[in-house]
């Protein structure tokens, strides 16, 4: 049997290897053996930033399952075995760890853009806002160290687009730039409002998503969603700024509530101002471009010239760099 390596990444694991490692729990399900007299086993998916593997707890699964939850970080002692051509971890011991003991960066991929570069750009965009009330709102929100830390670390989604650490920051910068600078010159659009809306449109995701061993929805995220959470967060800040114009506050709130564009996409209201329409289109552009990039990159790494069918894009993607001709 291969020598045990302490805390190897998933991508480093090989068949026959003994493992003493730390991973995030991406899935947990108690299943019945085919022979029901044998009772239950625990079906897991464990992962880190390098990938994921199925894992099994064969013994005493009913009691073990209550010792950790999906999204937790766990330390395991296990053996890598091959089943139907795929590696899996057969776990002897598993223990939940304090989430503070291991950084999220070990388990969740990060934005390809350096976070320091994006943070600098964020402050440049905030400083470009000329309206004093919107500037005060942004400065006070991002001047809060706890809020700033959560915002700049958070992903923008669990699976769909910008689904990695600092993804919210990357996506919001894209939307703010597209909305405020890419809007048509005609129409006298309020570019300061578009800038604020672009930066804040997904702010509720810092409460909707949790990043420990993997990206998971919080209870508030499941019950309320990031649109409502973000609306409440920004509204609370608006109420603490003396003299903030009511019509402008209402317009910003409308941008937050309508940025998904359609009721079917989770928008409580449809975009009903020119700024709201532009913000929605910028949000869609950034999200779809990221989704296409993620799908294309997966196929590129496999050396394929076509991706699999992407349900959300509604198509397969061609990767011309992988073509032989």
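^ structure tokens above, recovered residues below v
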């Amino acid at each position: 049997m291969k020598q045990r390596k302490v805390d190897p990444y998933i991508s480093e694991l090989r068949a026959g290897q003994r493992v003493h490692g730390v991973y995030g729990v991406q899935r947990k399900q108690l299943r019945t053996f085919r022979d029901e007299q044998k009772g239950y086993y625990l079906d897991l998916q464990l992962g880190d930033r390098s990938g994921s593997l199925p894992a099994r707890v064969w013994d005493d699964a009913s009691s073990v399952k209550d010792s950790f939850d999906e999204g937790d970080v766990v330390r395991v002692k296990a053996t890598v075995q091959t089943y139907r051509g795929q590696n899996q971890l057969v776990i002897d011991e598993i223990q939940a760890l304090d989430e503070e003991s291991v950084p999220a960066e070990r388990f969740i991929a990060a934005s390809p853009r350096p976070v320091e570069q994006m943070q600098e750009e964020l402050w440049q965009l905030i400083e470009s806002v000329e309206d004093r009330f919107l500037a005060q709102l942004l400065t006070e929100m991002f001047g809060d160290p706890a809020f700033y830390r959560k915002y700049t670390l958070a992903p923008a989604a669990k699976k769909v687009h910008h689904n990695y650490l600092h993804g919210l920051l990357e996506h919001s910068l894209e939307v703010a730039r597209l909305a405020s600078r890419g809007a048509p010159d005609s129409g006298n659009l309020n570019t300061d409002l578009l800038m604020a809306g672009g930066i804040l449109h997904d702010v509720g995701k810092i409460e909707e998503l949790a990043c420990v061993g993997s990206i998971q929805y919080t209870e508030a995220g499941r019950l309320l969603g990031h649109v409502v959470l973000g609306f409440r967060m920004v509204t609370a800040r608006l109420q603490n700024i003396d003299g903030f114009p009511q019509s402008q506050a209402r317009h910003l709130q409308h941008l937050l509530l309508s940025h998904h564009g359609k009721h079917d996409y989770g928008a409580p209201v449809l975009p009903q101002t020119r700024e709201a329409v532009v913000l929605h289109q910028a949000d869609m552009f950034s999200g779809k471009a990221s989704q296409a990039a993620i799908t294309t990159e997966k196929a590129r790494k496999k050396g394929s010239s076509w991706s699999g069918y992407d349900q959300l894009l509604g198509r397969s993607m061609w990767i011309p760099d992988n073509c032989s001709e």
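The chain has a mean pLDDT of 90.
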